Amino acid sequence: MKKITTLGVALLALFALNLQGQNAWINEFHYDNTGIDQDEILEVIIENPGTYTLSLFLVDLYRDVGTIYNSKTLDNFTVGNTVGNFTFYYFNFTTEGGIQNGSADGMALSYNGTHISGQLLSYEGTLTATEGAANGLTSVDVGVSEPSTTPIGESLQLTGNGTQYSDFSWLGPATATAGALNNGQTLSSGPLPEPTNYPTAFTASAAGNMIDLSWTDAIGAQLPGAYIIFISDQDNIVAPDDGTPVAD
Prior knowledge:
The chain has no helices and 15 strands. The chain is mostly beta strands.
């Protein structure tokens, strides 16, 4: 249930500018499940991979103390699907000791010895890298985790619509999709596909100069990228046309 208290109308637009040379990011990983850990994969997406040398992309796995316990260049990864200009690459670390269960372990992505901005990620807390291309940087906790009761065949993955890492958000354990689009993920700068469902139970309760809004979020495989709320003190609101972008 979402609830917003507002004194007026606010329209918020968020834009992310890709300032890095390589548009590549960690897109999915799995590190813990019920019983013996299985299929501990890590997936990377690269835009226009043919313009780069795969062996110069490096994934470092970090312990909570900031040291590296495993590294793999992307030429060792399995090539997955290609969607538009984006190609998926994944590696199963299970036979090499796996991906540590935390807490506060992580991974980083670099190219030709240079850390790719925003790609020192961790789970179950944060860490500060003490070696590798990310040396001296503090990780960003993905905000979701896998308890030891996580069903076999699930993973943590990015969901949403966009063309760079900052466009997406991390989804808790869901069916693993190594080498393919994640659950609810679209690689596009255009409008999202039609949502599976829409928000329900929307209410607006006025009290003086305050309006309390509440609703129940949409659910399903394809979620809305955002909600737009129109507010007016006149009877002049025109509903948007389906599929037509709304100006900021």
